[in-house]
Every structure is written in structure tokens, then in C-alpha cells.
Design a protein that fits this description.
The structure holds 2 protein chains of 2 kinds. Chain A is of the alpha+beta class. Chain A is built from 2 helices and 6 strands, in the order ββααββββ. In chain A, a hairpin with a 2-residue loop joins strand 4 and strand 5. Chain B is 26% helix and 29% strand. Classes of the chains: A alpha+beta, B alpha+beta. At the A-B interface, helix 1, helix 2 and strand 3 of A face helix 1, helix 3 and strand 2 of B.
Chain lengths: 144, 126
């Protein structure tokens, strides 16, 4: 695969789908190590068109790695969740070929208008130096 | 830097076909059946296959990058709400306008009907 996953995140307690009750606010759920390569760029360009970036990665790579890590780490998920909002602070663009650590935490959970909502904090940092590239909050309406 | 910031973001369009969805599914490792199988999408209450929300959001990131890449290194805050799904074979278009003379922008992604599927705010920090 174009984005190379080299480590896995945590599984839900006892392997059953994550439920609203199982999330512990403030707890790290898991993390993954990822590296973006040339194949990634080819796939990206096939969707969005070729752009001359002088060897740098697209800004959107932070968004993609965020969602990839969330999908990998928060497993298994029940069907019917809805991604409602997202906040992203992009400090700098991840670097081609560098190994990145993407960590996923539960930062809040609450009931809003009779819906269960879970906030996930996702941080992308350089695996070696610890430099923080991006930090996002995903607000997910949780189905069960 | 303020004077160098554009008043509008570059408009970008994307026809979201199944090929784009499949490629994105591979990139993101997200093979949820609602993105691949029309019947599975209908069973989830959708009228057809829906694209990953990040496909449209990343088009917005592309627009932001193309708009400011030459004038600012990224120190950005983007906050968005996903207002509606993007269905397969829809065309989406980005938009963004500067609010006042500061570093804040109203940003959005619309479908071909002109309905906003994503909207939010962007702040470019100096």
C-alpha cells in the first residue's frame, strides 16, 4: 500500500465494537506508524491532479493520515457512525519518506440532542524528533 | 503578510467517480461498503454510494494550498462541518472568501446543485 503502516493501534476491549460507554475520556486509544511514499503521491495526483510541489507533500496529507489512523486504531466500529465536524491545526506539512507517529485519543464524550457524540484527538508527529505536524479533533456521532 | 493573502481561495472542481472513491479507499484504508456497494449504501439509508467525506475536504485543502502556498508557510486552523454526503458521480467545487482584512476565511465545498456539503472557517496564522 502507498501509505505504509508499520505498527498497529489498540483493539476495542474484548474485541467487540466500540460503544459509547466503552470510551474513556482522556485515554490514548492507540497509535500507528506511517510513512508516505512516491506511490502515495501518484495515487493522490490521480484524484486531485498533478501539482508541482517541489518535493513537498500536499497539505491534505495530514487529513488523510488522520482518518487512516482513526480507521485503523478505533476498531472495530459499529455501522452508522456519522462524522459531523472536524478541527485541524496544521503546523507544518509532513515530510515525504519520514516515519510519522499518529496517535488517537478520546478527548470527550457527551449527549447532544439525544445523540451520542465522541470527540477524538488525533496528533501527527515525527516518529524520531517528536515534531508535531498536525493536531485534529474529530466529532463523531456514535451509533451505539 | 496580510496584503499578500488572497481575498478569495482558488476554485477547484472534482468529479467524484467510483474510480476516485476506490483510489481514496486504498489510500485511507477505508473500505466501508457504503463507499463501494450501492446496495450496502441503500441499506444504510443512502440513495446511492457515498464518497468518503475526506475526498471533498481534501479538495478544500488543495484549494487552500494552491491559494497561499507561495505567500505563507502553513500554520493553519481549519474547522469544518460535514453538512451533507457527496454521492458517486457528483461534482463538487470549493469556495473561500476572506472575512474582512484579517487572516480569517469562510470556506466551503458545494455540490453541482450549489448546496454546501462542507462549510467552515480557515484561519491563517502569521
Amino acid at each position: 500500500m502507498s501509505v505504509t503502516r508499520t505498527d498497529s493501534g489498540a483493539a476495542a476491549p474484548n474485541g467487540e465494537p466500540w460503544t459509547f460507554e466503552k470510551f474513556e475520556v482522556g485515554a490514548l486509544i492507540g497509535s500507528s506508524l506511517q510513512r508516505v511514499d512516491d506511490e502515495f503521491i501518484e495515487s493522490w495526483d490521480s484524484i486531485y491532479g498533478v501539482t508541482d510541489r517541489n518535493g513537498s507533500l500536499p497539505y491534505g496529507v495530514a487529513q488523510l493520515l488522520t482518518m487512516k489512523a482513526y480507521a485503523e486504531v478505533v476498531q472495530p466500529r459499529p455501522p452508522g457512525n456519522i462524522h459531523a465536524t472536524q478541527k485541524c491545526r496544521l503546523n507544518s506539512v509532513p515530510v515525504l519518506g519520514r516515519e510519522m507517529k499518529v496517535s488517537v485519543s478520546c478527548t470527550a464524550k457527551y449527549i447532544r440532542r439525544n445523540r451520542k457524540v465522541v470527540d477524538f484527538g488525533v496528533e501527527i508527529s515525527d516518529a524520531e524528533s517528536g515534531q508535531l505536524y498536525a493536531a485534529s479533533t474529530l466529532e463523531i456521532c456514535w451509533a451505539v | 503578510m496580510d496584503a499578500q493573502l488572497p481575498n478569495k481561495l482558488v476554485k477547484l472542481q472534482l468529479a467524484v467517480g467510483q474510480d476516485q472513491i476506490n483510489t481514496f479507499a486504498a489510500l485511507a484504508g477505508d473500505y466501508n461498503p457504503i463507499h463501494i456497494d450501492a446496495e450496502a449504501a441503500r441499506q444504510s439509508g443512502m440513495s446511492n454510494i457515498i464518497a468518503h467525506g475526506s475526498i471533498a475536504l481534501n479538495l478544500l485543502w488543495e484549494s487552500i494550498e494552491q491559494s497561499i502556498r507561495t505567500t505563507a508557510s502553513p500554520s493553519l486552523n481549519l474547522e469544518v462541518r460535514f453538512r451533507a454526503p457527496v454521492y458517486v458521480d457528483e461534482i463538487v467545487e470549493t469556495g473561500g472568501r476572506r472575512v474582512g482584512n484579517g487572516h480569517d476565511y469562510e470556506v466551503w465545498v458545494s455540490n453541482q446543485e450549489g448546496s454546501r456539503v462542507i462549510e467552515g472557517t480557515l484561519t491563517i496564522e502569521s
